[in-house]
Design a protein that fits this description.
Length: 259
């Protein structure tokens, strides 16, 4: 497939960063935003990118993007989401934290808490939190996924089922318009389902780009969580699901506006 030099660089930037924005690309290439919008539309028509408001995503199919790219997407938003989740979790509590760059942001925000028992299948979370003497970290056994340090598989599921905790902090790869929570790896999904089933209060953390993505494996439904924290939710159908199922919706962008 032939690509012009600018189109090829745009695709590579999208692959490296996960998300690219029109204004940033216009500055990078020294062209108008209208030119970049046309470039993105052309690349999306060729199914190389997925168009979102203000930019585009890579990839759009059944393959998850690389961990480093995911960690760069909406990093400030994830930090704010992490802080908001940490405010809901008190000292001297037990919790699950599963795989994901947003759940890792929650882990970072929890390091000033005392008396926590953290059960996780995320090596990155365990490695960061283990150095704090006031936090006990328990890590699941199983297959370690080389791409992101996630522990998955039946052994991890059986391990999680031994616990009944106060909170679960879960992330997802995508949220469908009907409220379905989606991911890419069926082994990870089984662990996430066990986490949801064995927590008294489930906190879903996901930035707004998750509304623009898709993934093939169903974890569950938004109505199964107690609290949903995102930076912004512009979808009326998602807000309706939260209201109907008594799911508390916290939008960190709205909180920031009030400060």
């Amino acid at each position: 497939m032939y690509l012009s030099p600018r189109h090829a660089e745009i695709v590579q930037l999208a692959k490296d960063k996960g998300r690219i924005l029109v204004d940033e690309l216009a500055t990078h290439f020294g062209v108008t935003p209208q030119t970049i919008r046309k470039d993105l539309n052309d690349l999306c028509e060729r199914r190389l990118l997925t168009r979102i408001h203000g930019g585009a995503l890579f990839p759009s199919g059944v393959q998850n993007m690389e961990y480093e790219a995911r960690s760069l997407i909406a990093s400030d938003e994830k930090t704010a989401i992490g802080r908001a989740a940490a405010q809901l979790i008190g000292d001297n509590t037990s919790l699950f934290i599963n795989i994901g760059t947003t759940t890792e942001a929650v882990g970072r925000a929890l390091t000033d808490h005392a008396g926590l028992m953290v059960i996780t299948n995320n090596i990155n979370v365990a490695n960061r939190m283990r150095i704090y003497p006031s936090i006990e970290v328990i890590i699941a056994g199983g297959v370690v996924r080389g791409s992101d340090g996630g522990v998955v598989g039946e052994a991890a599921v059986d391990f999680i089922r031994q616990f009944r905790v106060d909170f679960a902090v879960i992330g997802v790869s995508a949220i469908d318009n009907d409220g379905a929570l989606l991911d890419f790896d069926f082994r990870e999904v089984k662990v996430a389902q066990a986490i949801i089933a064995n927590a008294r209060h489930v906190i879903l953390v996901a930035d707004s780009t998750k509304f623009e993505r898709t993934a093939p494996v169903r974890i569950g439904h938004l109505s199964q969580v107690n609290t949903f924290i995102t930076n912004r939710c512009d979808l009326p159908q998602i807000r309706r699901i939260c209201a109907d199922a008594n799911v508390r919706l916290i939008e960190t962008d709205a909180q920031a506006t009030l400060i």
